[in-house]
Amino acid sequence: MPATFTSLRRAQALLGTFVEIEVTDASHCDAEGAVEAAFSAIADVHRLMSFHEAGSDLSRLNRTASRAAVPVHPWTYAVLEMAVEINRHSAGAFDIGVAPALQRIGQLPGVSQASSPPAGMPTMDAIELLADNHVRFRHPAVLIDLGGIAKGFAVDRAIEALQSRGVGSAMVNAGGDLAAFGPEARVVHIRDPRSPDRPLCQVEVRNQALASSARRFDPFQSADTTDTAVIEPKSQMPARAACGATVRASSCMVADALTKVVMVAGKEAGGPLARFQASAIFVSTDGDIHTTSDWWGVLQHAA
Question: Is 132 found in the same domain as 190?
Answer without folding.
Answer: no
